[in-house]
Structure prediction request, 130 residues.
Amino acid sequence: MRIENLIYLVGGELLNVPAIRSIRGITSHLARVRRGDLYIARDSSLVADAVERGAYAVLFQGEVGIIDPEIAWIRVEGLYESVQRLLRFSLVERRVTPIPLSPLTWRWTSQYITAPSVAVSRGDPIGDLE
Prediction:
């Protein structure tokens, strides 16, 4: 995804002029960061490690110091809301049809349906994006 499209999608503010133009993946888990990923920073103390692991962009709320000016630093007002927009885009792009479930049906579904082609939301847009 191109950085300018990402910024528009999440309603963010690009704080620098990065050398990179696009990202390859998205994660909020430090251990899963690969070269080219967008790192969703729930915890700003992990940002330096994500950059060291190869993150090409960092999405964050609040204040984070720019430690590598070559990658994209994207600040948003609400991290949760921005990731929800990113998740909706991802679902549309993959042609996934969300199906609302009652709490009881959700519990049953999440326990008994384990097929890789079925994704059951955990109620956490940041975790669901992965």
Remarks:
- The first strand starts at residue 13 and ends at 14.
